[in-house]
Every structure is written in C-alpha cells, then in structure tokens.
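REVIEWER CHECKLIST
Item 1: Sequence provided? yes
Item 2: Single chain? yes
Item 3: Sequence as submitted:
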Amino acid sequence: MDADPAHGEAGVGYHSRVVDGELDELFAGLPAISIEGAKAVGKTATALRRAASAFRLDDAAERSIVEGDSKRLVEAKKPTLIDEWQRMPESFDRVRRAVDDGAGPGSFLLTGSATPTELPTHSGAGRIVRVRMRPMTLLERGVGSPTVSLALLLDGNRGPLEGSTDVRLEGYVEEILHSGFPGIRDLPARLVRAQLDGYVDHIVEREFEELGRKPRRPAALRRWMAAYAAATATTVSFEAIRDAATSDEMEKPSRATALAYRDILERLWILDPLPPWLPTRNQLRQLASPSKHHLVDPALAARLLGVDADVLLRAAPASPSVVRDGTLLGALFESLVAQCVRVYAQRVEARVGHLRTRRGDHEVDLIVERGRTVVAIEVKLSGVVDDRDVRHLLWLRERLGEDLADAAVVTTGKVAYRRKDGIAVIPAALLGP
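Item 4: Structure as written out by the authors:
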C-alpha cells in the first residue's frame, strides 16, 4: 500500500525525535534499517515520514494478503516500510535477500515491537542495521531548552556552563507520570493513567500469549512486574524481586516462571536494564557486574506501583517494595535521566552503563563511553550539590586521569554551572545531545 506521510501518525502532531538525525544519516547510505523498541514509542510514525509505501503486518487482513504473495514486500515503491515485521518473520528474510541482491540505499525500513518466537532464517547481520528507539526525552517533549551538550562533554574541553530553566521538582514529577509515549503524553492525567493501565493489560492478556506463553496466573505476572518496577534504578537480585512479588496470600512464582516473565518482557523491550560498565583497561579492578533495573518508561513503573504525584512527593512507601537507597521518586527521576542520556548517547555513537564496585563503596549512576573517552554522571533529586554528592566522581577522576573527559551531576536545580573542583552541575532539562 502507498504511505501518506502528510497524514495520520506521521504527519499532524509529529514530535521531532533525536533518532531522526541518526536515521537520516544511516538511511542515506544503507539499504535496510530496522527500528526496534517497545510498542508506542513512536517507531511507526517516525518510519512513515520516510516511506513511499507501507505494509502494516499487525493488520490481519493486510498480513494475509502479503503471506499469499510475499514478493509484494520487495516490489513495492521505495522506500518501503514493513511495520511490525515480527508478525511475519519471513518478511525479514525477504528484505535480507533483497539486500543481498543489490537493493540500493534507502530501500527498506522495518519496525519491530518484539523479538519473535519464530526467528528469521538469517539474523540480518551485515545487511539490516538495527536502531533502538526509546520513549521521548525531555528535549523531545519540549521541556526546557538544552544548553549543555553531551557531545561537548565527551570532547573534554571542560569549559564553563551556561543556561537556566524554570522546570522545578514538581515539573519533573509531572513528566515522570505523563510518560514519554508520544501518543498519550499530551492527554489529561486521568486518560494517561487509563492508557498506561491498558498498556499493561495488553501485555498480560495478549502479548505473552502471542509470544508462546499464556500466563497461568495473570495476577502473579502483574505482581512480578510491579516488583520489578519497585526495583527501578537498583541492582537488587533476581531473587529479591521474586520475593517482593509475593504477599501473604500469594504463592511465590517459581524461579522458572519468573525467568520466563523476564525473558518475554525483555523480548517486548519492556525491561530496559542498564548494563554494568566493565572497562577493558585496567585502571579499575573489583567492579561488580549486575545490571541496573529500569522499565522502558518510568511512567509505566509508577503506574504499576499505583503511585501519584502526592505519594511521590511525600516519599510515601510503595507496595511491593525492595531495599533501596533513597526514595522511589529519586529512583524514577534517575530512570528518566537515564532514558534521556541513553538516547543522546546513541545519537553521538556512545554507549551507556553504570559503575559499582563489588563492595558497593563506590557507585556512579551513568558512565557514557565513546572509544577511550568517558563521561561520568551522577543523578541527584535536588537543586543543591555538595561535596558528598561528587565524592564518587572525584574518586573515578583520580583513577581514569585523562580518559575521564568530564564528570557531572544532573539535578532538579535551576542553573547549569561548574564547581570549583571542575564537576559540572546540570539541570536535567538543560542536557541535550
């Protein structure tokens, strides 16, 4: 079918995305790109803006036509979008073969919201380039006007910082709860909550079964998801999450069942764990290797836990709960910042992890690495930064030397500036790619 990028998802109301620049650069020289990420992050709208024809494989009628004649996929007007390709894994193979046969740059875009149970015959490595898409960053939401560039921090000039913002703590709480899913974030708060509830319902009632595992006890799955949400921005063990998913009236899910939950939620891109930073150089030893737990969007975590702005601002306990340092709001703010930094880092060809020593005596929330260059970032739910807040950054600077391009604390404050010790202080709304 022909695509009409002037209407619908791709046209009116489209929010420009950081990934747009990356896609423009890659699509100009590569024949096929697969945009991957959870449902509702905006993959289809972004892809449709570049497509001359589109096949929506989540539509049963359209999928049936293509299954009867899959040549349509490679014979349609270019660029061709194959939306939700995982519904028909053969489509991935069709594109891969078309690339092998000499398809030119900018021929195919694929989008996928899950890793299918039936995998394609070939991984597509070397033929189809994968690009990750996450929910909207603060920049993409129009929250603040960034004056501090992650790319410049990676360049290591450590110059003075400028910029101020009117966004306060309550504004960040609103952004956490309103979500980065472009199709719902501009709705009234009541409707956002209803949409997030529906999102969870769809995962539990439809997505699991479509990936080959219908939950025997949907309530246990919801409870496990809530326990994972409670573990946001921590490295608590898998067993601790499983324990938190149990109440006095509920039997603990078996380890095999809980592992299956985790596997499918990762395949749906709902879980977005932050990997540990494990440098290949030997300035640092005794680093721990667990990932930090994050959901695809902190709004989803808040909704699973049933917390609102009042609960978060009062630092009231959530249920279920896990052992954590600090408040749930602090964890959700860190998750929001991590989401933004991961999008910005991808744009500048950098990777993001976190640092934690085995004894837990040193931690850094975010490590951005490009080549041998590192930027270390701590996240603080406050507008005030004192010496205690930068101690881990200073420790890391002593060990990395010139390899540490810069170090920063991202806050809920008003002004971007650089401390006397050289540590950057950056309000979250002022950080951009």
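Item 5: Key structural point noted by reviewer: Confidence is low (pLDDT under 50) at residues 4-11.
Item 6: Recommendation: ____
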